[in-house]
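Aim 2 progress update. The chain analyzed this quarter is reproduced below.
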Amino acid sequence: MKVGDTVVRKSYDRDITFKIISIKQEDDETIYVLKGINLRIIADSPEGDLEVVKDDSLGKTDLIFDRKVNDSIKKIILQRDLIVPELKIPRINKAVKIPELKDKNLSFGRPGKILHIDGDSEYLEVCLKVYKQLSLNVVGKTIPEYEQPNVIVQLVKEVKPDIVVITGHDGMAKGINDFTNIQYYRNSKYFAQAVSNLRDYEPNYDDLVIFAGACQSCYEAILDAGANFASSPSRVLIHCLDPVFVCEKIAYTNVKEVVSIPELLENTITGVRGIGGLETRGKYREGFPKSPYV
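Predicted structure tokens:
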């Protein structure tokens, strides 16, 4: 096996599909470091537990998530009555069939602008494709988790977003009992510090909406730092696209309305176990009249 191979773990009933990202030696044993194809998870495994699969093969859990992704995209498009051109669907949800909708000739509007900071460039690329499909205005930056607190305020000053996503990889230490101690998490402390730095810059929860966290992140600490939405309430793995679906709901909810958290969670892949948050106003602004020149 080599770096770049797509594999599943036999001891976990081949549930999640991974890509090998590095190989290391531990006590005369070869250990493979793995990254989830769809889930924001980093794991390691001995060679004997791995099975190479085709690039387009997905584990059992991934197939379930793919169906949820398809359903969420179609539901969002139908809810917004968008005219959807021929779209190139990313590999993780390539089976989705977009319905053709008629132009309602609605008055124009502007959804909230998004800044998405991600510790993983491949996950960010997939997210940017789906942002585009959903007609969202987004700027994406790949920043390692440990550097995010140092650069986040300057990036917000430059981009001037309405919504900020701070994500990447995370995970809990093995065998912990105190799930609220942020020191037992791989990157939660960086997410929380980045959120705290942003709240020092903009304390109003409705002026700057923040989503932060990744797989198994310390949900309570990130909310306490000032995030509107965070992961992961039940310390579960979250899907690569969960931040996108959170942002879509906020960006297209009118500024006069408070975002319905149950409705927001319905469109995410991991739902109430993976994402939660606080009452927040939407970022969609209607305009009148529409310019005849655009």
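The chain has two domains: 6-52, 64-286. The two ends are 53 Å apart (CA to CA). These observations will guide the mutagenesis experiments scheduled for the next reporting period.
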